[in-house]
Design a protein that fits this description.
Elements lengths: L3 H5 L10 H6 L20 H7 L4 H5 L2 H14 L5 E2 L6 H6 L32 H19 L5 E6 L1 H10 L9 H8 L1 H25 L3 E6 L6 H26 L7 E5 L6 H5 L5 E3 L6 H8 L3 E6 L8 H15 L4 E5 L9 H21 L1
Parallel strand pairs: 1-2, 2-3, 3-4, 4-5, 5-6, 6-7
């Protein structure tokens, strides 16, 4: 495995499209930048051609293949960012859980967390380069291969969402309320586990940035399940600590900070709090009303939020939906995206219509303002 730290000392090509970074920082943009969660993946025929029958976690550990998969959608579409092909579940594995199956093919972990005693099996101070160096190698390689075309996203799962996977083994089938029950039944152990995950996530983000990521996103896919009370008690303080911890560690290393995005799905009750939590961008799912979010979020950049199922609509309907979305969000302090990931049987041509419509309509809106 290549030493990504030495690779990162080499100069990367100058960035030719910085729209998404400017939007994230609240600077004026000539058009709305756009990218999609899960833009690299199963809906693209070239993904299957490249991956073949390689297992998912094995794919994630192959920097050359990850680089190819990450760049595929950037070559096909006029996207304003790439996002590294990886998975949020690499963190619990690095901490000590054993992989049983790839996501979507049965229980992911052979040894999920069932009680406080199980936390003794986990380590937050693991050798991160030894365990996750393949992610950082892939980021450095991809940044080089992009040659400045667009910025590269790094990402991680948020502590609560990772905790839910570790306890409920989500791919094993529905285990409703098991993780939330753990929170209220074992509050001290829950704070301990979330703290361990916070430390691991913070280090993971810092190393991704060190390797070449120019913007990062924290995915809290199950945030809404917590409701206002549990979210405020257990998760919101942790999310704040991650944002601060990443920036503090980068400052200590004399590395410039990069924009940070928090995406807390279904946590509509916390938009105002999230906008003050230290992140540059707040991502929104499709159930959030843009005008309402704007009022709550103040001057923070927003990201989202077209319903992913709209990619099954006709091309004209997609264009109309994009136009309506842009009218509500406006063209500044805004990054267009779906409200969650691209669905696996989405027609790539419809994704292209969505991306092009964002650019065309936002340019027209800016020209007319």
């Amino acid at each position: 495995m290549a030493a990504y730290t030495s690779l990162n000392s080499q100069a990367f090509a100058p960035l030719r499209n910085d729209l998404i970074l400017r939007a994230a920082r609240g600077e004026r943009t000539e058009r709305v930048p756009v990218w999609l969660m899960r833009q690299a993946g199963r809906y693209l025929p070239e993904y299957h051609e490249a991956k073949k029958d390689t297992k998912f976690f094995d794919t994630c550990k192959n920097p050359e293949l990850v680089c190819e998969l990450t760049i595929q959608p950037v070559e096909r579409f006029n996207l304003d960012a790439a996002i590294i092909f990886s998975d949020i579940l690499v963190i619990p594995v690095a901490m000590g859980l054993t992989v049983a199956n790839d996501p979507g093919h049965g229980p992911v972990y052979a040894d999920p967390v069932k009680c406080p005693e199980d936390l003794k099996r986990l380590s937050a101070d693991f050798d991160i380069v030894s365990e996750l160096g393949y992610v950082y190698d892939a980021i450095t390689l991809t940044r080089q291969k992009l040659n400045g075309k667009v910025p590269l996203f790094g990402f991680t799962g948020a502590p609560w969402t990772l905790m839910k996977f570790m306890i409920e083994n989500v791919s094993a089938g529905p285990n409703p309320n098991k993780a939330r029950r753990f929170l209220v039944e074992y509050p001290e152990a829950s704070h301990q586990l979330l703290g361990m995950l916070k430390d691991a996530v913070t280090r993971h983000l810092v190393h991704q940035i060190k390797a070449g990521a120019q913007i990062v996103q924290v995915f809290d896919s199950f945030a809404g399940e917590l409701g206002p009370s549990l979210f405020s008690k257990f998760e919101l303080p942790i999310l704040r600590q991650i944002a601060k911890g990443v920036k503090d560690q980068l400052k200590e290393m004399n590395i410039d900070p990069v924009p940070m995005v928090v995406f807390a799905k279904d946590a509509h009750f916390a938009i105002e709090e999230l906008s003050k939590s230290g992140y540059d961008v707040v991502g929104l799912d499709w159930c959030t009303q843009p005008l309402h979010a704007r009022k709550l979020a103040g001057t923070v950049t927003l990201q989202g939020n077209l319903d992913p199922v709209m990619m099954y609509a006709s091309k004209d309907e997609i264009k109309c939906a994009v136009k309506e979305m842009l009218k509500k969000f406006g063209t500044q302090r805004y990054i267009a995206n779906l409200g969650h990931g691209v669905l696996k049987d989405t027609n790539p041509d419809h994704v292209g219509v969505f991306i092009d419509a964002v650019h065309t309509y936002s340019e027209d809106m800016n020209a007319g303002s």
